[in-house]
Amino acid sequence: MQLIKLIIRSLILSACTGLTLLSLSAQVHATSDLERGFAAQNNGDFSSAASYFQTASESGNSEAQYQLGLLYAEGSGIEKNLSKAITLIQQASDTAHLLAIEWLTQHDDLTTTSEEDDPEDDC
Which among 14, 62, 73, 76 is least surrounded, fewest beta carbons within 10 Å? Predict the structure, then answer.
C-alpha cells in the first residue's frame, strides 16, 4: 500500500514539475517577444512591434499589454482603436502595472466616454 502511495506521489510531483516548466517556458517566450517588440519599436518599426507585443500580451505579459495598448491609442503601426487600447491598458493595470494605472488616471475622460458609448451597456 505504501508503495502505491509513493508511486502516486511521484506521479503528482512529476506532473506538477512538468506544468511549472511549461509555465516558465511560456513566460520566457513572452519575454523574448517583449524584447523583440521593444527592439522593433526602437528601430521605428511599429508594425512589427505591435505584432511582438500582441504575442507577448496573449501570454499575459502586462508590459506587453501596456505597450500594445499605447500603440492602439496612438495608431502607431496599427490602426488607432481607443477601445482596444483601454481594454489592454486596463488588463495591465489589473496586475498593478504602475504606468498603466497612471495612463488610465490621466485618460479618465476617454474611459468614461468609451463606457458610455458601449452599446452593450444599453441592453
Answer: 14
Q: Encode burial over 72-105: b for 16+ CB neighbours within 10 A, e otherwise.
A: bbeeebbeeebebbbebbbbbbeeebeebbebbe
Amino acid at 19: L
User: What are the CA-CA distances from residue 91 to residues 16, 81, 104, 122, 123 (Å)?
Assistant: 27, 16, 11, 23, 24
What does the alpha-carbon distance between residue 52 and residue 89 come to, in Å, rounded to a whole number?
16
Predicted TM-score (pTM) of the model is 0.67
Question: How far is the C-alpha of 81 from the C-alpha of 71, rounded, in Å?
Answer: 9
Please report which residue ranges of the chain form alpha helices under DSSP H.
2-42, 46-58, 62-74, 82-94, 98-106, 108-117
Q: In order of start, what are the domains of the chain with their CATH numbers?
A: 16-122 (1.25.40.10)
How many whole angstroms separate alpha carbon 122 and alpha carbon 9? 53
Q: Per the structure block, which three cell numbers stand in for 99?
A: 504606468
Query: pLDDT digits over 47-56, tens only?
Result: 999 999 999 9
